[in-house]
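Dear colleagues,

As part of the handover before I leave the project, I'm documenting each prediction I ran so the next person doesn't have to rerun anything. This entry is a single chain, and its sequence is reproduced below.
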Amino acid sequence: MTNIILLGPPGAGKGTQARRLVEERGMVQLSTGDMLREAKDSGTEMGNKVAEVMAKGQLVTDEIVIGLIEEKLAADEGAGFIFDGFPRTLGQADALGRLLARMGQKLDAVIEMQVDDEALVSRITGRYTCGDCGEVYHDETKPTKESGKCDVCGSGNLKRRADDNADSLRTRLMEYYKKTSPLIGYYYHAGELFQIDGLAEMNAVGDAISRVLDQQN
């Protein structure tokens, strides 16, 4: 079993690489947002706690998130877990480490997908998706064959995210670096940090991640 954390700024492609690991290695992606939405509707004791907190518009505590992760770890004996969106603070990193140790598991690698900020801004601001089937396009690198029409499903419902503009993205990048910098140091000191080029071609990024994971086995 291999447990990893994927780190990278918004738009670096973490979701794409996580899906690849799920498909090719049978790993389980643990996305904080997905877990909270699933728990809210589950009717379990933990789920009821989540629903109550979210109904009040409050932030879900680290304790609750760790409890949800513990449920997932206990329920699945797959090939390992990909932690996506957690941890975000040093306190959460410590809590995750203690949980894994308590369950006889460990963190094998923290993979940081490094990017050049301006190149990332260019990548993201040109991005748009099909609102019907979810196919992703780009003005420069992957335009639709027929203007205004999805190549996959033929829909004309092509959309851009409102926050996929240069100013908004630079703000999101600054927030990411402010929150994540302590984690980079934390996992580097622990000898668990591996850094790869997040702006390389998608398959090259996937191959780099695979090499890191293969070294851990």
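The first strand starts at residue 4 and ends at 7. The first helix runs from residue 14 to 25.

All the best with the project,
I.
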